[in-house]
Structure formats: structure tokens, C-alpha cells
Write a structure and sequence with these properties.
Shape of chain A: globular
Distance between the termini of chain A: 29 Å
Strand content of chain A: 15-25%
Number of helices of chain A: 14
Largest sheet of chain A: 7 strands, mixed
Radius of gyration of chain A: 20 Å
CATH superfamily of the largest domain in chain A: NAD(P)-binding Rossmann-like Domain
Order of helices and strands of chain A: EHEHHEHEHHEHEHEHEHEEHEHEEHH
Oligomer: homotetramer
Structural class of chain A: alpha/beta
Chain lengths: 355, 355, 355, 355
């Protein structure tokens, strides 16, 4: 197989920087084209300083012709803006991984409610595959439009999926308390929000019960449960750069031992290279997943109360965004699932045997 | 009224340093005596470097005679060690504020279960007043032994008290997700736990469902509810120095509007100078309480699910420890409740009118 | 003496917030008037959230009449904008402490060169007193216009003054390597500069040999030396909120022992309450000065090379800005020099005996 | 060429963790043997939690027989302890890269002075090659004992080498102000030093003019200058995990333009894949080198004073330790110099053409 030519539409954001970093070292890929209106004509390193000396590529204007030289385009434009690019690219038979939220919700009503805009391409919504490889690897392999999941949904859904699939918990009592690092807030300054002095030494919630990742999480949990699941979702900002830590407090529907619960997780995620299930008494922490594509999961049970707590940790810029996009690309083009991702050399065996 | 002579038993820890800082500037107090075995004969600033030039006091050996020159002693010894000092001091009619956990639990069985030691002074347990001034100010005024509350319990109980007193929530579905800064972990090194490299950039839980603050919280919530309340309590470490942020997810027993809930809080905490209730859409954050004795509280309601979320923020070293100890001292000796505490000059009016 | 009525022109910035915090608790002062165009009609706490519940004051429009009800106005407007307010206020016999850089340089040519604007009030430049109380306390007492020093100059000049006054070092070989926390960069977002993700985990220089604090430092060092002194000044950003750490590497003109050098510092700063000189082998650190008005100073000598290193540490928002402004106010109005500043109760003795 | 079998003696420290991470993914290497006395019989991930699921290797006891199965051993024992292991291994014709300081100083007198111990293997000192590939690549290729440089020396020597080789600066006026992250302080707790609460929000110097990296830097600078060079070296701790930032203030011996100086650097480092020279007006920052093996270098000139400032930035755990060790291994065994290091795929071209 020859080298895959890929491009990025919207190359100046934080996640795009992480994606470029991965693509430049991916053994089966060549990064050909990086579009950015706001960084037009700059070299990549002028916007992503860590790239100095690593590539001579520069930012270019949007051009469908240019994009057509690529077999795959990553769209990293803001929500509500991304859909036009996606629709345009699909007309040329270019495969697309959309990192925005524009194609994650299957229901156009829900999209309109949460993103305050009527979706312009409802037929594409139906065609899009939700790009969480641990749930949809087969569909991703055959897809030309993959909607890369949100960062919070990745941590929350992966933490909950086995419990809902096996109907072990009360789907009306899912309490998610999540803390995210600031890379999730992007590079656009917002006074009082993402300045260093706003965040340093601080902890605080935001978008309480109003975060647009709520419908995305509920959509996937409900599909797994095969009936409506509801969450209470409280996102917070933590003074770290990368990482999302989700603490999910649940009610078991019936008495179940921790060993059995862990077994259920291990079975559900068998042969999934990026899921690590922790043994009893051990818990995920951000330092174990930062700069990796892992989603680490741990459980704690209070048997008297039938209260189960699930912990999940991801790097929001990798498993929560750019890393997952590369994982999706690997599936779409028949590469090893971990190809080009951190620790790929160690993970190839996992892909066949599981953790 | 003359100046109150006070002393500290156990003066080398982190909280003791904060307490010394407060006592040195308190207008009605003179710090006479600071005991420390491990820092014996050092000057205070050799252990608490920020005190350089502020006091010539040094650490002294334990002596009941020395202590007897004080009208009040703060005991800041580790749990299970503190009780002997307390018992000893009380024999001399010296009033005591115990910052350890030794006199917080009213039930000796519970103490034995959580602190792995039979309590040696069960009769003193009965005599001790739980030093949360927002609940027990009258008892504190007349007490000779005040058990200063734990840091997590302060944030959690203050966040929940009005709801339990008015029986508005399900007392079996109290999900507390709390993050603490590292000052709560003290100054004793623990490899893999409280080194800078263990914490920086990290988020992680610890003592999941096993933290000894659990029985303390449940004791007070049950008293308020007048029936057993149970919590799920998940403490985490956040890479900050000072502060505890508690996110408490709850189920309302019946449909209740946010305005009415806020009104219930404002009424419960009327004329309490250190409680600040946030208006709808505003939430506490650590930066607003750090280096103060405030407990800031905010609410969010998801009416469809009858899901209520309470947020509380404190500085664990002040309202969660040394500041609360000073507040208790103020009550015990008839000073203004905010005397010697940050923003005292602004708070005196609050003490009569409330926020 | 009655209570002093004071006001602030430019009340929405970071330093203004710190100043408000100090003024609200100052025992001899009443904050009457806070101007801000950009926060007009908001309450103070809507801009400085930590003030919630502490004051009912709101931001008002600029009005010379309003200002005239105050005996002292702090001007906290940006450089080049502040001078008009200052000139206006002085016409009404209102005393002014200007926190901007507009009246710090005595030489209008130098002002024009570094601030890219011809100074509009050269006669006021002459009248202004440079508000570094450790050098100019007598002049400050009689002044109606005090130019509050810059943050870096405060740390650097205080660290160097005794050496230049006693002509102990080569004034052409002064190498200053300084690191500042982000509060010095203010609350105006600058993409790539002061966002959390730009700063976290990072160290980097900025305005290398181009920082406008250079002429201010050289002006004062030259006055002390009574001949031209030159500095190499390299400012950096450190991922902390508050604090400036200056490491100053010097060449002694002749062999001098460390004890003698320390003695020289202690003599120069006798009875100055906010200077703490460290003993041999001890060095300042940010944690010892943060949230105080201290400037801590330490020395290290490499006798073989006649190389002297001076370390100074301040809280840039206090001794480097708002605290020093209050110290200046205290001198101007005959209060105790430490009145209303952190640890005032401990410092009153220092004011007469020295550290 | 077959796969190279390598081992580590002293596998539980922080740097060893980074080294394991690199070796596990190196395409030409197999990690066979990891010794640790203190972690004996644990799995690697029990000590380095981020390795969970990546390797089944465990820590083993020291055994020369075991070590002999490897062609190369990395010794990561503490200074003064490492030398015995090194001597032992060399008897078996096993090549050694020693990460301790035991073989860095060529002069035994200097070793005795700075490490307070007479060196036991002076003949090996002579045999050892100082493992800074940018200066000694040829010698490293043929060596069986490479002394991996210290972290500060790597940043300082690389920042200064071209200037000393070309005799452009005064070798008696080299003022180094360096800040290091805490990973350099290792994983052994030291109360008051490397706890989170000691470091967070803090900046402070340590081992002022006493750091054992001083003789190492002076040794290499003197060799480059072909005559004695002296430094003033002031190390500080910064509240970051990884990175060393060196700000080096210098006196040019004669007027030289910045362009010419940059040209001199570019020529000196031609075809060195891990050196990045910044253009005029741009400066290194930690965020650009963290998690890479780069040493980034920038210059600023104050022509009036003939004052030159050099900035260098490295990741102390990679270019300052484990990464440089892998780079040395690559040279010793004929692999591409960047093999197995971050961005290897981008750097192969650099190895032939230079930046």
C-alpha cells in the first residue's frame, strides 16, 4: 500500500496542532495540505511554535482542488461552520473525519436545540458514523464520513458503556462530575475564562447542565441501553493543560460484586488496544494517560449502598480529539489501529490479545 | 477586656503555620506558647519561613505548666495522638480547640471503626462541641472543648445543611465529588503521593469511599435530617495549594424552584458572616475564597430530572482548619465572630444584617 | 484625625482589584469612588468576583467633581492615558498616586523614547516624586504627586541600592535575570501570551533588552551611584500568579566579605519595615513574600571570582504595585508606614527598630 | 542487523522511567533486563504507573550474568554508587552508558572535591567519553563507556560552545541563570524541598555557586576555549515538571553583529538533528522542547554594551538525560542518530542537511 495523502481544513487551533504532530510521524501517511484562513501564508511553525524545524509546510487557502489531492481530510473548523466544508468535500469522494460537533448528533432536532442552528445537511447526519472505535469499529471501517466524538463524551461513554449494554445500572441516576484541562477551551482568548490568572490555583464549574456534550452522551448511552438514559453532567475547569477526569456516581440495579463488574468491562473491551481497565483498589490518574491515546478506567463499589463509582481518564487532545481521529483514520484505511499513535510498538500485540 | 493569652500544641505542621499567621495579627490575642517536639528550640521562622522577621518566638517542649499560662490552647497534633494532650489540658481548666479528628465523632464505636483505635476518653467525646459555628454557635460559646471540623466536612455540611434541615432531598442519594489542594495533605513527604512531580498536571481520586471524613459528614447530616443520611464521598487531589471544591449531586424529594431553594439557604444562614450564597447562574470558585474564611455556595437545578447540584468552595487551611479555629475562639471568648480574620473590617456589618 | 476619603480612577484592572482589597480593610481610610469606563454601572464584585458580599460599591463614570470629594486618588490607567487624569486631578488640589509609568522617568526624552509619545506635562514630571519609600520617604511625605514604581524596578532597585550607594560594584556589569508571575501581564487577553495554555509548564523570556522598566531602573541606580549605571535586563514569564524573582549577577570592585556586604544592607535599610535581609546561606523565595508587602533580599558571594549574586523577591501586585501605593499613601498622610498592610500588627515595632 | 539487547541498572527512578518509555518503542532495541533493588520483584508498572499494560517486564536483582545477556547497559544509579556497577560491567565487555555523574569529570581531584569521595576507578575516568554528541560524536561511536552529561551542563554547554570555540566572549564573565523543573530533583522526598506545597507558586535558588554541575560545565567550556573558563552558575527551581531554561549573560570580546553570531552557531551545529537555532527576535521556550530531545537556542544582543544573552531550553529528562542516552546509544551502535526519539521520522533529513 502506498502512502496516504491527507489534509487538514482549519489548521491553526490547538487540536489541529496536536493532529499535525501525529500525522508528521505517522509511518503510512503524508500530510500534504493544511488550510487556515487566519494563519494564511504563514509557515506551520509560526502558529505552532513547537514545529520549528520539523516541517516546511505552510498554511494555504481553502481550495477543493487542493483538497482533492488528498484521500482523507480532517475538518477542524468550529461547530456550525464545519458542515459546509464537509458537504463540499464529500461531493469529491474525499473521505472526511470531522472533528467538530456537526455530525455527532443523529437527531436534527437535538442539533438545532443545542447548537442554536438548523442543520443544513440532515441527509449527511444519517450517513455519518459516530467515531468511537470501541463501539463502532466495523461501521468506521466502511465509512466516508466519521464524526469524531467530543472529549467529555469519549471519557464518559467509554466509562459507562459496559454497564448500559449489560443493563446493570439505573439509567436515570447517572451523575457525572468531570474536570477538564484548558486545552479543551482552545486558543481563542476569553477574558475571565481562559487567561492564566483566571485558571491558576482555581477550580470551578461551567456550563452547568448546559454543556452541548450532554445530548451526545445521552444519545450513545441510550443506544447502548436500548432505552432512554439521562445524565446529570457537571463539567469543571482544572488548572492543567491536558486531560479530562470523569467521576461517575451510579446506582446498581441489583447487588453485583466488583470482580464481576470488572469482568464485564474486560469482556466488553477485549482486544481494544486503547482501553486499560484497572484492578480493584487502583484508579486512573491523568498523569498515566497524558500524551497517550489511552482511556483508563477504574471502579469502586460501596456494596451497602449499591453505589458504584466509575473513574475514567483521557488526554482530551489525543483520545478526546486528535488521537482518536488518527485511530479512526487507521480503521478507515486498513492500517493497524494503533499505527502512528504513542506506544504503537507496544500495542500491536494488545490489538489481538486484549489487556 | 484584656488580651487573651493563647498557645499551640503541635506547631510545626502546615495548618499550625496558618494559625500562627492569624494569631500574630489578631487584635485581641497574644500568642505566648508554641510547642513542637520535632522543631524543638528552633525559631518559628526556621520551620515556617514566611514568618522571618515577624516574631521572635521559638518552639518549646510540652509543659502543662507553660500551657497553664494560656487561657486557650489549640491542639494541632495528629489524630489519635491529640486526645492525650486535650485530656491533660482540660484538667487545668484550660479551654481547648482541638484541630485533630479526635473529638469530632460523638459515637465511640464509629471512632474505633474509622481511626482503628479505641477512644481513651469517651466521657470527653460527650462533652466536646462540634465546632461548626454556622450550626452550633450557642454551644460553642459555652464550651471548654471544641472539636474543630475536618476540611471536607466543613464544605460538604455547609453545602447541604439547609436541604437536610428542611427535608428537601433524598438522604440516600447524596453524591459528593470533592477536589482538594495539597495543603490538606500536610508537610510529611509520601513518595508517589504529595511530591510536586506526583501532583503537577495530575488529577486523581484517593481513599475512595474510605476517607475518615465520611462518618463526620454523615453524623452531622443525620442530625440535621433527624434520621440517617448516607453519602457517597469521592475525594480527589487537584494540583493547587489551597482550596476544596465540592460538587454535590442530589435528588429533590419534590419539585421545588431554584428561587425557593436559594431563599431557604439565605434564611438558614442569616447573619452568618462567612457564608456567601450565589445568585442563580453564578457559582463559587476557589479563587474567590482562597486566603479567606468564606464558604461560598451556589446551586443549579435541572427541573426535569429534579436533579439539584450544590457547589461549595472553601480554603481548606482557613474555613477548613485554622480560620474556623479562630472563628470558634472568637465565639468562645466573646469577640466579634470575624475578629482577626480576613476582611474583618468589612464583615462586622454582615454579622448583624446577613448577606 | 478623621477618616481619609480616597478614590480610584481605573478600577477594573488586576492591580486595582488588589488595591480595593487593601483599601476596604485599611483602618484609616474610606474608599468612596471607583471609576471605570469599561465596567461602568457594574458593582465592584461583578468585575472582581472575590469582593462578593464585601462592598456595595459600584463603578462610576469619571467626574472631577466626584473625585474632588476625595483627598487622594489612585490613578490606575494604562501608560500614556494616565497623565491626563493626573493633570486634571492636580488642578483641584487632590493628591495623586499614579500607578502607571507616566511620571516615573524624570527625563522627558527618555519617556518619549521608551513610551513612544511626547510627554504632555513635562512640568509635572519635575514635580513628581518617585514613590520608592525606602529611598524617598521624606520627599513622599510632602508630595502631592507620587509616581508609584514599576514592579521589576522595585525588586531590582531595592536589591541593588546599598551596593551602588556605597560604590561596591562595577556599574557596567549588572546582569539582571528576572522572572515574573502572570498578574503582571494584566487582564487583557493576548493570544499566544497570557492564556493558561501559553504559560502552563512554560518558561520564556520576553521584551529582551526592550522592557520599558530598563530606563526606570537605570535612572535610580545612576542617582544612587552618582554616575551612569547600565544594566542588562532579561525579563521572563514564570507559570505562577504573583511574584517577581530577580537574580542579579555582579562584579565587586574590590574584595569584600559577605558579612560586610550584609552589614551594608542592614544599615542602608535600618528601620524600613518591609525589607527583610537574609542571613548567609539563606535565600528569598516567592512563597515567603506572596500576599505581603515585603521585599526579601539575600546575597551569595563567590570570593575567587569577586562575583556577587543578589536575590530579591516581591509580590508584584503588592510591594510591586498596590501595596507600595498604600505604603506611599501612609507616608503622605502621616499614618504608620505599615498601616492596613499585611502583618501591620507585627511590623509596627520594626518601624522603629529595624530587622 | 539484529535487535540490540539492552538493560538498565537502577530502574526505579524518574529518569529510568523516561528511559524505559523510549526503549520500549525503539525500533532496533529490545529491553531485556531492568534491575532495581528497592522495587525488586515488582512489575515495572507498579513503580512507573504510566506503563500499565505496556510491558510485562518486572524488576530483577543485580546479576552480572543477567546483564551479560545484554550488549549495552544503562546505569542509572546515584552518584558515587554507580561506579562499581560500571567497573563490574566493563569486565564483561558490556558497553555502558552511565547516567550518573561518576565518569563525567576527567580530573580525579575535581571529582573528589565536588563529590566528597575519592574516585575508585581513575583509569576508567580516562577511558570514559563525555557523551555530548554535538561535541564528541566520533569518540562516542567508538566508546565502550559513555558518561551521559548532566542536565544543566547539556543546556549550558550547547548554548555556549560556538562562542568559546570561536573565542568570541570573555571567558571570565559567563553568568548563567538557570531554572529547572522538578523532575530533575528525582523521586526521593525531601521535606521543604520537593513536595508540591514547597514548589507550587514558588521560585527560588538552590545550591548557589555550589552545584556539582559547575566543574562539569567549566571542564567542557575550558576545553572548547583551550584555556580556563569560569562561570557563575545560579540554579533555581521553577514550578514545572520538565524543562531547564538557561539564560546566559555574556560580554563579547569585540563588536560582533547578531547575524554573524547566529551564522557561527548554525555552522557549528550543522547537521546536528537536535539543535534548533532561533532567528533574530525569536527565543526558545520550554513548551517547544518538552517531550522532545531538542536543545533550542536563541540570542539577543545589546550592541551598545557588547552584552550578549544566550537562551537555551531543553527537556531535562530527555536531552538532559534519557533522550541523550538513547542518542548516545544510537551513535555507539550505528543506528540513525534520532532513531527511537520523538519526531525521528521528521529528523532523518536534518541529519544530513542541518537546520
Amino acid at each position: 500500500m502506498g502512502v496516504l495523502q491527507v489534509g487538514i481544513i482549519g489548521g491553526s487551533g490547538y487540536v489541529a496542532g496536536e493532529l499535525i504532530k501525529l500525522l508528521l510521524v505517522h509511518p503510512q501517511v503524508q500530510l500534504k495540505y493544511v488550510e487556515s484562513q487566519q494563519a494564511l501564508d504563514k509557515r506551520l511553525w509560526e502558529e505552532h511554535a513547537f514545529l520549528y524545524g520539523l516541517t516546511e509546510l505552510g498554511f494555504q487557502a481553502y481550495s477543493l482542488e487542493k483538497a482533492s489531492e488528498c484521500q482523507l481530510i480532517f475538518v477542524a473548523k468550529p461547530h456550525t461552520k464545519a458542515m459546509d466544508y464537509v458537504a463540499d468535500l464529500l461531493t469529491q469522494e474525499i473521505k472526511v473525519i470531522d472533528i467538530s460537533a456537526d455530525f455527532r448528533l443523529r437527531d436534527e432536532g437535538s442539533y438545532a436545540e443545542w447548537y442554536k442552528m438548523k442543520h443544513k445537511y440532515p441527509q449527511l447526519l444519517k450517513r455519518a458514523v459516530y467515531g468511537l472505535p470501541e463501539l463502532y469499529s466495523e461501521q468506521i471501517k466502511g465509512s466516508s464520513l466519521v464524526a469524531n466524538p467530543g472529549c467529555y463524551p469519549t471519557g464518559a461513554i467509554l466509562g459507562l458503556a459496559p454497564l448500559l449494554a449489560d443493563r446493570l445500572i439505573d439509567p436515570q441516576q447517572i451523575r457525572i462530575c468531570a474536570y477538564s484541562g484548558l486545552s479543551g477551551a482552545g486558543r481563542t482568548p476569553q477574558a475571565g475564562q481562559n487567561l492564566f490568572i483566571d485558571v491558576y490555583g482555581n477550580l470551578r464549574p461551567y456550563k452547568v447542565n448546559q454543556h452541548p456534550h450532554i445530548p451526545e452522551i445521552e444519545q450513545e448511552l441510550s443506544r447502548l441501553y436500548k432505552s432512554a438514559a439521562h445524565i446529570s453532567f457537571i463539567p469543571h475547569l482544572a488548572p492543567i493543560n491536558k486531560g479530562i477526569y470523569s467521576t461517575i456516581q451510579l446506582k446498581l440495579l441489583q447487588q453485583t460484586g466488583l470482580d464481576k463488574l470488572l469482568e464485564c468491562y474486560r469482556k466488553f473491551y477485549r482486544r481494544r488496544p486503547f482501553i486499560r481497565i484497572y484492578n480493584t483498589g487502583h484508579y486512573p490518574q491523568i498523569l498515566n494517560v497524558v500524551n497517550t491515546n489511552f482511556c483508563d478506567i477504574g471502579l469502586s463499589l460501596d456494596p451497602e449502598q449499591q453505589a458504584l463509582t466509575v473513574f475514567s481518564a483521557i488526554d482530551n487532545t489525543l483520545k478526546g480529539a486528535a488521537g482518536q481521529a488518527v485511530q479512526n483514520m487507521n480503521l478507515m484505511f486498513g492500517f493497524k489501529e494503533s499505527s502512528g499513535l504513542p506506544f504503537a510498538a507496544c500495542l500491536e500485540s494488545q490489538e489481538s490479545v486484549g489487556l
